[in-house]
Design brief:
Layout: H1 9-20, H2 32-41, H3 50-59, H4 78-91, E1 102-114, E2 133-146, E3 154-160
Antiparallel strand pairs: 1-2, 2-3
Amino acid sequence: MDGNKRLDGDTEAHLLALACSEAPSGRERWTWRMLADKMVELNYVESISHETVRQTLKKNEIKPWQKECWVIPPQQNAEFVCQMESVLEVDQRSYHDDFPFVCVDEAMKQLVKETRTPIPAQSGKPERFDYQYERNGTANLLDFGQKSKKFASDFRELKPKRRGNR
């Protein structure tokens, strides 16, 4: 299998299912080498390299080490689901001039200050920064946008985080 990096559909499906399954006991996640070894152990293939595993997962956009967060409704809470669906319904509405659709998003960012002067880029070398930094507070990034077929207006405002009296 190492010479031929292509897996047939059935074997590829087994690899994807394995990558999405719970990692072995004592491990937080699968590694490419662990997946390759397990594929051989389960007799899905005679041999397979970790690089073939990596390429197959990349091709299928499977990234088991990444996790996404979203709101999972509490069990048997119809009111919560109803409210969530009404919010999602708003995003599906068509644009209408009489009823503007304004989106607001907020993100908190840490502000950092360089402790050493960066070394400017030179021929064949990128600009270099020291990994050490000084914390310089936080800021809230607010993003306002209008959903429109004709135009999109964005207004971004950076506001420093309020601190108590010093």
